[in-house]
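ok, trying the design again with the full structure, not the truncated one.
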């Protein structure tokens, strides 16, 4: 996807705002970051930010959408398929990718869960969007489960996603072996749904 670029080779203001928000929100959450900090980091005027994103909620919704593109599809889904030629192997490969992620200095946890918990309101646009993006991850899992010939892919996806989210939280607690622990349990879950 081509980025809009300003004359001096710098990304357009909207992209700078979104890039800045992405970095800040994914690291510190949505409540821990004020609009002024996003404005300063993006090097834009307040009016420019509000022209592109009329409210902080609009910016958070754009951040969540971008997170789905970059994290869910460009990283989790692609990395699983790259590492696991067959669908069942791809499901387990998610935890291999997670294991490497958990050991990185920039490990930041799951933004969808973080925002959902910060919002604590599934009826709000941001809370509903967070839940929808989590459901979209389960969609990836359902697709892989279906390709692997597993039964009851909806139930499988719910169980498997618990392992994914749980391993992320456990890694956030400092357990760097969380992905490998979850992968061992994931094998049992896969066996249950064969």
């Amino acid at each position: 996807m081509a980025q809009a670029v300003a004359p001096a080779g710098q990304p357009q203001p909207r992209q700078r705002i979104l890039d800045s928000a992405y970095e800040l929100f994914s690291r510190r959450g949505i409540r821990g970051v004020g609009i002024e900090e996003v404005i300063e980091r993006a090097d834009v005027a307040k009016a420019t930010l509000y022209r592109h994103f009329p409210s902080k909620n609009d910016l958070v919704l754009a951040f969540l959408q971008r997170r789905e593109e970059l994290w869910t599809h460009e990283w989790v889904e692609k990395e699983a398929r790259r590492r696991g030629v067959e669908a069942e192997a791809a499901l387990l490969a998610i935890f291999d990718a997670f294991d490497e992620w958990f050991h990185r200095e920039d490990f930041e946890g799951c933004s969808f869960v973080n925002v959902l918990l910060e919002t604590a309101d599934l009826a709000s646009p941001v809370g509903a969007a967070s839940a929808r993006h989590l459901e979209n991850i389960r969609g990836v899992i359902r697709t892989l489960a279906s390709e692997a010939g597993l039964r009851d892919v909806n139930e499988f996806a719910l169980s498997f996603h618990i392992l994914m989210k749980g391993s992320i939280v456990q890694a956030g607690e400092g357990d760097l072996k969380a992905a490998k622990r979850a992968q061992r349990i994931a094998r049992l879950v896969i066996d249950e749904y064969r």
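Keeping the full-length input from now on. Confidence is low (pLDDT under 50) at residues 1-5.
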